[in-house]
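Please fill in the sequence for the structure shown.

STRUCTURE ENCODING:
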């Protein structure tokens, strides 16, 4: 399987298709927006050797963010990627889980953030980065600092999540439509809600 990083959106789509990691249909994203494409990130992370080769090509860019003490990912999709990024950076690696009752992300299993630690937020795919922004409040409340974001596939079209710089393995932009502007051709396709985060 290909491990060299793509240099254009077209190359990214070709790589994702090689891994079977792009699905077409009508998808309701975690942001509440609609799209006719969905990145099936599990199809990428099931190949850890290949993914590690991709991540290693971005280590210098991650280190350019400054000191990284801890890698923090949201469960579940970000966890395997976070583990591999932690391995590449030789950094302590933890994850946050969503509370089923409150729908909020929180640290469990004895994980903690110590005052003064700098954290890299890691996710598999971002569209708006909203899940990662959920993590920033309690990082800062515990005296931590966000160094930046690493993501395998950045489909946001932006170089930051909030004010935090993004390092990615690949970038691609698929059309995204707000709920009140879904085109008729897409509305005619039954909608599917992939992922586990509840849509507000």
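FILLED IN BY: designer on duty
SEQUENCE:
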């Amino acid at each position: 399987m290909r491990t060299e990083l793509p240099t254009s959106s077209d190359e990214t789509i070709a790589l994702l298709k090689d891994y079977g990691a792009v699905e077409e249909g009508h998808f309701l994203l975690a942001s509440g927006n609609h799209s006719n494409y969905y990145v099936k990130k599990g199809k990428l992370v099931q190949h850890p050797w290949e993914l590690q080769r991709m991540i290693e090509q971005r280590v210098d860019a991650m280190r350019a963010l400054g000191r990284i003490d801890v890698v923090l990912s949201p469960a579940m999709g970000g966890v395997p990627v976070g583990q591999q990024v932690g391995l590449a950076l030789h950094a302590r690696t933890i994850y946050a889980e969503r509370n089923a009752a409150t729908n909020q992300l929180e640290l469990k299993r004895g994980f903690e953030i110590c005052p003064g630690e700098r954290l890299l937020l890691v996710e598999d795919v971002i569209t708006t980065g909203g899940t990662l922004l959920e993590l920033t409040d309690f990082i800062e409340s515990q005296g931590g600092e966000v160094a930046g974001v690493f993501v395998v596939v950045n489909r946001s079209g932006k170089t930051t999540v909030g004010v935090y710089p993004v390092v990615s393995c690949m970038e691609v932009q698929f059309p995204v439509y707000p709920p009140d502007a879904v085109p008729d051709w897409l509305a005619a396709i039954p909608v599917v809600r992939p992922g586990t985060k509840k849509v507000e």
